[in-house]
Design the sequence.
């Protein structure tokens, strides 16, 4: 069971659920305590030790059902096989039929009707006289197990063969055939194949029976590999996809990946927020911390030289984010707005603005509307041809008075002003008043200053400028921003 | 491992809790069982009013152990949570002992010898007699163990979380002046959180995680039957069905179990036997805590009532 647990944890990790080694130990200890008999209790136990938030618990339950259901199915199949054997001994035909049907994959034997297994065995034994390969096969383990429908033995053997073949490392669907072959080989299917060829040569009547058993076996192994593929590769593939997406230029991301990106952006914003939520630091005012002051004074014969204070000051960092939603950056704008939306969700003191020819505040929009609609409305209200000059004038009117030494201003845009007045003076006054001005430009550095781009001039009025064309860059820049906010 | 019979199995815990009037799901019982067996703290999350704090109180009653409660808030620091020196006492003693100093140093030759003599007395002022234990230390000093409830951990600061790490993983406190104080008997620790902010991974890793959601209809009826047994069965069914229907609405704050219980009590006082629209309207403020929510619910009142009146027929 230990190795099962480890494999299960491996799968959890591939579904972006970070399980630490210490938690693995906890889970193992907890499993010892509760035992394996009660499935619901086992699930709750593992959930408590491995999933540490509501969100993680959802992922956990999904993985748990996938992983342990298949195992449970196999165990029940083993039970059915036992019943099969028992009932065959008592000769209750009806019961045998029933459990034959109950055992998944037993349909091959079921086709020929109840009790056919015995006939098949006799037929094959008769044919074996002329064929040494078949004789050898009948003396081995595989074929008798198949004939008697020993589901338990077979599925254990299959599982073991899968482990030897490294099935848990399967990642691509093209590998399925290869793994199926490997498992079949290690189960000893090649012997059946040889026997089939020999029987063919001998034109023995038993060949159809043997073929049927061979097909049942192949089908079983194929199903098993398919199941394992789904379980093992799904998480890895989605992690791989996330990785690729985070490195793709935002403008090139296909619409159908939007939801995935949205989830990624949200995760990113959450990560950033938890790393950088408001800090408090001691200040010299408010209530006197008598204990600490007295203790400090003891060294000086009780004279209170140095005072300590109870109050702490909360850093009130504020972010003003301005996002260009004009046509030239339309492909980026929706992602940037998405990011702003998530950021405002986690850092409530963020104020968001959108502009193209004129500028307006969209904080309330983000607060009240769901993401999709908010982005749509922002685009609809403020979309159009770019005019940085008039937009900065609007911004100055709306928010310049609120900018102080603890304010950070983030500007997301390509600085392509259609040769209009750039209003650099306003940028400079923002620069002087604020703690920092950060400009994120979706264009690469080489394109800055070419054509109607005013980036090089605006750059003089920014503390930090960076190209930002994919999610990775976005996260890096914002992480830096938040770090410096402390 | 814990040998106490009350904690022998999850079923025993569930039964024991039920006797004390705390009806819980098997999951909660499993959590308490594991916490006792593995000696790990439990981080209890969930919406307000589902019985997170009550869980710790009931556990303390069941085990007949003292409940040590630490309410977290912004600015809580180690002096209030862990320990503090009795500064006044220290000062007073130094003043009183000043006169004794002459006797002690009587006959000592030179500074070196005097200091040598003083060293023989050790750090008397920083010993346990001068230590004022705060909740966390108190819980560790209980000779037979205790139930420690760290309430609303999400309200405290990041620094405080780090402070808890040593206590929660090793059940010990390091005091620079004295050394490490180990718990006399491992306390059963519950941390509750309303999820107003994410708890750090380091803390989460040390705890078992238990999420208590709103109870199912069946469970809530049992809770109500245990807490307000005077309410008739039919009214109780309607009441719980109504609360569940209200939770489906888009509300600022959904009514929790504690509100259901309060509401059942108020209906009892009003001698209600059935849910009537007028009665509902006049008592909604017990169930819902925001004017906005009350308005939303009032608008839906008729359809809500119809749906719960139909529901029993379906059974």
Sequence:
């Amino acid at each position: 069971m230990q190795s099962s647990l480890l494999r299960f944890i491996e799968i959890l990790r591939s579904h972006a659920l970070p399980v630490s080694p210490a938690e693995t130990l906890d889970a193992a200890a907890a499993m010892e305590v509760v035992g394996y008999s009660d499935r619901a209790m086992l699930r709750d136990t593992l959930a408590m030790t491995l999933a540490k938030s509501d969100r993680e618990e959802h992922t956990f339950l999904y993985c748990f059902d996938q992983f342990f259901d298949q195992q449970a199915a196999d165990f029940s199949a083993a039970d059915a096989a036992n019943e099969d054997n028992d009932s065959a001994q008592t000769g209750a035909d009806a019961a045998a039929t029933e459990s034959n049907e109950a055992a998944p994959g037993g349909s091959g034997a079921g086709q020929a009707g109840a009790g056919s297994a015995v006939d098949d065995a006799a037929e094959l034994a008769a044919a074996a006289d002329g064929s040494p390969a078949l004789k050898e096969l009948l003396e081995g383990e595989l074929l008798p197990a198949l004939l008697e429908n020993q589901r338990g033995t077979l599925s254990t053997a299959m599982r073991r063969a899968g482990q030897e073949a490294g099935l848990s490392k399967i990642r691509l669907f093209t590998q399925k055939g290869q793994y199926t072959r490997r498992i079949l080989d290690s189960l000893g299917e090649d012997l059946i194949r040889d026997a089939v060829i020999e029987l063919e040569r001998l034109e023995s009547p038993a060949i159809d029976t043997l073929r049927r058993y061979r097909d049942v076996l192949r089908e079983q192994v194929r199903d098993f590999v398919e199941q394992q593929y789904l379980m093992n590769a799904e998480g890895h593939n989605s992690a791989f996809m996330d990785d690729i997406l985070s490195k793709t230029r935002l403008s090139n991301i296909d619409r159908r990946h939007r939801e995935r990106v949205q989830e990624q952006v949200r995760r990113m914003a959450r990560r950033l927020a938890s790393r950088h939520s408001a800090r408090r630091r001691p200040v010299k005012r408010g209530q006197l911390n008598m204990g600490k002051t007295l203790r400090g004074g003891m060294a000086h014969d009780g004279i209170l030289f140095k005072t300590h204070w109870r109050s702490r000051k909360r850093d009130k960092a504020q972010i003003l984010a301005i996002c260009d939603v004009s046509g030239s950056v339309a492909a980026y704008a929706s992602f940037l707005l998405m990011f702003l939306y998530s950021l405002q969700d986690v850092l409530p003191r963020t104020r968001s603005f959108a502009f193209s020819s004129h500028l307006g505040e969209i904080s309330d929009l983000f607060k009240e509307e769901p993401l999709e609609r908010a982005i749509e409305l922002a685009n609809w209200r403020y979309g159009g041809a770019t005019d940085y000059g008039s937009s900065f004038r609007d911004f100055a009117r709306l928010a310049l008075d609120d900018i102080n030494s603890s304010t950070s201003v983030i500007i997301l845009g390509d600085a392509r002003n259609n040769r209009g007045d750039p209003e650099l003076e306003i940028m400079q006054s923002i620069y002087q008043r604020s703690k920092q001005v950060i400009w994120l430009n979706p264009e690469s550095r080489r394109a800055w200053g070419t054509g109607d781009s005013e980036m090089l001039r605006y750059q003089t009025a920014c503390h930090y400028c960076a190209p930002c064309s994919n999610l990775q860059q976005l996260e890096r820049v914002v992480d830096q921003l938040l770090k410096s906010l402390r | 491992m814990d040998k106490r019979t009350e904690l022998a199995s999850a079923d025993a815990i569930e039964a024991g809790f039920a006797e004390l009037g705390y009806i819980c799901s098997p999951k909660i019982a499993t959590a308490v069982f594991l916490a006792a067996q593995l000696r790990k703290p439990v981080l209890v999350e969930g919406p307000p009013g589902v019985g997170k704090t009550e869980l710790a109180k009931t556990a303390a009653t069941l085990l007949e152990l003292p409940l040590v409660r630490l309410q977290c808030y912004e600015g809580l620091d180690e002096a209030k949570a862990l320990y503090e020196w009795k500064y006044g006492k220290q000062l007073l003693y130094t003043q009183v002992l000043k006169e004794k100093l002459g006797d002690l140093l009587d006959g000592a030759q030179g500074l070196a010898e005097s200091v040598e003599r003083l060293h023989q007395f050790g750090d008397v002022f920083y010993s346990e007699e001068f230590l004022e234990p705060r909740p966390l230390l108190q819980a560790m000093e209980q000779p037979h163990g205790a139930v420690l409830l760290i309430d609303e951990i999400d309200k405290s600061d990041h620094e405080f979380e780090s402070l808890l790490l040593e206590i929660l993983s090793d059940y010990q406190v390091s005091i620079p002046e004295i050394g490490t104080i180990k718990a006399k008997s491992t306390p059963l620790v519950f941390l509750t959180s309303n999820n107003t902010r994410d708890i750090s991974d380091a803390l989460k890793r040390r705890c078992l995680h238990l999420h208590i959601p709103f109870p199912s209809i069946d469970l809530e009826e049992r809770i109500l039957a245990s807490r307000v047994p005077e309410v008739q069965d039919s009214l109780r069914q309607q009441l719980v069905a109504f609360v569940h229907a209200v939770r489906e609405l888009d509300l600022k704050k959904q009514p929790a179990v504690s509100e259901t219980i309060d509401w059942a009590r108020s209906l009892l006082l009003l001698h209600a036997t059935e849910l009537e629209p007028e009665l509902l309207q006049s008592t909604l403020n017990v169930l819902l805590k925001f004017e906005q929510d009350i308005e939303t619910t009032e608008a839906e009142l008729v359809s809500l009532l119809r749906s719960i009146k139909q529901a029993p027929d379906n059974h």
